[in-house]
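Review form for a predicted model. The reviewer records the input and the model, then writes brief findings.
Reviewer: anonymous (R2)
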Amino acid sequence: MPFDEDPTEENRLDLQFQQTAVSNVQARDIQIGQIVQKIVYLGIPPNSPLRPFALTISIALYLALLIVGFVLLWRDGVGFVPLLLLIMGSGLLSLTCLYYAWFWKPEVQDKSPLIPEGSPADEQVKRQRTKQRSRQQIRRLAIVGFFLIPLLTCAGFFGWRSLPPANILLLVANFDGPNQQNYQVTETLLRNLRNATKDYTDVKVQALNQTITEQQGSDVARAEGEQRKAAIVIWGDYGVTPTDVQISVHYELLKPPEIFPELGEEVDGKAQTLAIAELNSFKLQTRLSNEMSYITLFTLGMVRYAKDDWESAIARFSDALDLVKEPVPVLGQDAVYFYRGTFHYYKSDYQNAIADFNQALKLDPDDAVASNNRGIAYAKQGNFTQAVADFNQALKLKPDYAEAYYNRGIAYADQGNSTQATADYNQALKLKPDYAEAYYNRGTVYADQGNSTQAIEDFNQALKLKPDFAAAYNNRGLAYSDQGNSTQAIEDFNQAIKLKPDFAAAYYNRGNAYAKQGNSTQAIADYNQAIKLKPDLATAYYNKACVYSLKGEARAAIENLQQAIQLNATIKENAKTDSDFDTIRQDKQFQALVGE
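Model under review:
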């Protein structure tokens, strides 16, 4: 007899147990589903007409939590509030998807039977089948959303961590010490830092709201900064006796700019002992705040320097210098004047550059680099006598200063003293054999002397050391052109333009080489490009006029010659005797233009 037709008592008990277990599981699922349903529909009863509206509101609310969490994360970095919002938004959206993937049973409520795909298709069946497919699609999307939403949230969070910070963030930890509320070391520091940086929208000063002790050290401070994408973390402590106060300050620069001076040990935890009266009178707090603001503004200036934003860098340095009047051991004002002078130089503001280098040298007369840089600024002004004097002073302070020899060589070359210039370049190369710029400049001197063979050798060496040296290709091309090798010259000009597409001189020189080859079309095209890049290039107009004249195009030749004369009146004298204009010399407009 089959088992299911004559069950024993034991089998009946087992079957009853299984049915009870299934019923318990179903009951538990129903309870969970009801809880999830209340969350999804914001507690609206099942039969309420407001349920669709509640669903829209709940999804919008959960999305808003997620979006606000990411906005706060982007703006303020990792913190309790943004993380809580991200977890809540992602979790509630995932829970909504879970409800529609597992607990949602609309076919039970409307008691609609399942319609097999092969059944006859009357209108009711079609509607029911469409409804089934729609529900199946919703469930599939819910399943996908249940897994995708947490994955996208995690991807967004870790993607944010890999992005550069939106602002330069300064974190200030609570200074560890007694009577913090009375002495207000941390509060004063925060207030002054915010006042000092209030005009800079890319800077944000934020309290860490926790103490970093000496036992925890720099590793913990840097870890906190990295977690929040901070650029600077300031922390420290102080101790008080009846007569003295001992304070230690740490200025953690997490990612210093490539060029950044070494700061003094006063911001590396060195204990400083001061009279207790300075703490009680708030002099210590004020001085500490000013010094931290001074160093911070200098750091912000160096950050702008790394982005070639000279104007903003200078503004930050100026604000730093306005903050302190007394010497600051951790970073002397001479360093700020030096860098501000350097950035004035980059802006071609040589007068202000010299003024700042003067201040730097007044504070530190033994700064060879400041003397060298001031010499460069004087040379740019055409004051070669003062420039050479500064380079001499730099070499007196630092006899192995290859750059000073190099710069003095430039000054001598600009004075027409090629012999002394060559000697200085030789000395620079002796001290620094891989000095590509010195080879280049010595090659330029040889080229000016008519020694194209030696010039090419030096340009070759410069390019060997610095293969992307566009100016060396350009000048070597000129040297080849002087030797009558237009083909090789054009190859060099091509390479210079490839490396530096806005190199007006290379286009002009290549135009001259094409003109020598008789390729007037390409020559005119290169002169036009040179003029486009440098509209005041009178010689390009003049040479283009020569090419048009040789082609017999009088009108174009005269128009370009007229433009050249307007830019440089001395060109008129050249045109009077230039044989390239013989084809149009009898033209009355040409004669009127050159005064014949």
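Findings: The two ends are 135 Å apart (CA to CA).
Further findings: The beta strands are 168-174, 203-211, 232-240, 244-253, 272-275.
Recommendation: see findings above.
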